[in-house]
Structures are given as structure tokens and as C-alpha cells.
Amino acid sequence: MDQDKERGFDLNSCVLHLLHRAQQAADEAFAxxxxxxxxxxxxxxxxxxxxxxxxxxxxGLVDATGIDRSTTADLVRRLMRKGLLARRRARxxxxxxxxxxxxxxxxxxxxxxxxAAEVDQMLLNALPETSRIxxxxxxxxxxxxxxxxxxxxxxxxxxAE
Length: 161
Fold this sequence. Notes:
Layout: H1 3-6, H2 15-33, H3 41-52, H4 58-65, H5 69-81, E1 85-89, E2 97-101, H6 103-124, H7 129-143, H8 155-159
Antiparallel strand pairs: 1-2
Helix pairs in contact: 2-6, 3-5, 3-6, 4-5
């Protein structure tokens, strides 16, 4: 018998391992669906947030996506080079830049929403229909955990308890 199983540890029921494997499956599904675009899931997340919060700055992107500051800055630069994002100085604060989607960015994002929904559905199809909404809710709760405290950073989730 395997020593880890004797000690009560089974990799196939380890949450960290399973989340990692699920992320790998999600990344592969995204890559297949968006192969013709050259975009990554993080780049898509940035486009979505900018479309929902036009005029946001990079700090707002960090807060909304959870992507660290240096990676966010790199993502913004890449999306600007691709002609999908535009940046300008904020009227109210000359030290800050605000972001907006270009017309090309808006058109691309519009076509991506359908593909992203199809990828989500393909992944959720692995679950019984009655488990899908609770699963997405559970993922949201896990994603909202502050690693330093173990507490949720999302006040709406705390209020729902």
C-alpha cells in the first residue's frame, strides 16, 4: 500500500491538486477556443473589466481581476500594442491614466463573449446540472479568500452567510 494513503493523504482528493488540475483543463479549453486570437484568459479578463468600467485605471484593474500590478501593466501594454486598448491621462488626476477599449477591442470582445460562454458551458457540463450553480458559487467563495487571513475579501459573500 502507498505510504501517503496509509497516512490518509490521497492526491486525488487534495483540494489544491484538484484545483490545479481543473485550472489546467480550463486553460486548455480556453486555448483551443481562442487559438486564433493569441489572447490569454488574463487578457480577456482585462478587456472585460475595461468594457464594464470604461475609464478605469490600472489600480482598478488590479482590484477587479486580482492580477498583480506588474503583470497588469504588462497586459495593458500588450493589449495597447494589439490595438485593443487605449490609454490617456485622467482629467481629474494627471498622474493617473484611464483605459478604454478601442473600436477594434469592442468588436473583438463582443465576439469573445459567445466563445467564453461556450467554454464555461463545456467545463460545467462535467457536472450534474443541479451542481453547476453551487459549484460556481463555491469557486467564487474560494477566489475571494485572502491568503493572509483565510477570510473572505468579498463583503457580499459574508452577508450571504
